[in-house]
Amino acid sequence: xIEQFQPLADLASHPVIVGAFDMVAEGCALxxxxxxxxxxxxxxxxxxxxxxxxxASGLADRLREDLxxxxxxxxxxxxxxxxxxxxxxxxxxxxxxxxxxxxVLLEGSPQVFDAPxxxxxxDVLTRQEGMRFFETLLEQPAFTAHKRQSGExxxxxxxxxxxxxxxxxxxxxxxxxxxxxxxxxxALGHCKIGETWLLEGAYxxxxxxxxxxATADLRFPWAHLGMGHAQRLLGQFPEAEDAYQVALxxxxxxxxxxxxxxxxxxxxxxxxxxxLAARGEIDAxxxxxKQRMIEYPDQVIIADKLGQLLMQQTPPVYDTTxxxxxxxxxxxxxxxxxxxxxxxxxxxxxxxx
Length: 353
Hints:
By secondary structure, this protein is of the alpha+beta class. It is built from 12 helices and 8 strands.
């Protein structure tokens, strides 16, 4: 038995625990556990993955009629525990149920969990990534006075991460604030609180937390990535593009950030062009859109917006007696786009010659 599943050595001093880990279903771990000699006592059950990480935790205190009918205590010893979202990665996991106090495993462990893939419309730090940042933070000279607390704080950070991963967001925020209180104002703490707001769908609060993270450490890439996510979800596309751009500059090899930036530019560039046109700077808007269209010719929305501005730049005059007049503006717009591209191609060829 691997180390994280070793029960306490002095089990003789603890009452006997009976129970079972019945199944994993609908993203939850189900089973029951109780102490026959202490039927009123509610046990805290932990679900542990084969990596040793606790991926669910809670009381076995739910009423189950079949347990009551079988005379197992008062029947209130059932557990139904939400699993961490980090498990939903498309892989097979082996999950163990244990009593949190004694580490005694319940019968039925392990349960095999063939995890489906679940994704969010944003990135968050994994528990392990956050742990690495946190451990590095604890090694800084500024934390020397609290060195003796480091072990307790690391455990507390893991617990706060679990609360976040199982959807107990308010509790997670409170736990993070306690964890980071001895450390002081730091970007990681604000980012973790921002993540709880993102996951809860409170994007304005998330943006405030990520801005606080950037204020604490302007070079922490997750602060800018989080701002980009929050601003994108709030419909603030140009601002989100700027945030993603800063995040990519801090992590130039991060392909995921590049994808977010490219996707955001599809939305933000037309908005920037509209803002320029509204100020009467149509030529500048045309230049912006033309550069983007040359870089990404498959983006239809960019080409359409550029065509509209070209028509606005030099409004066409049509003979209203001509047949097919309704189709003529679209044809004229396409012609102007083609001429613009051909002119740039000719200029490029001339430079190379």
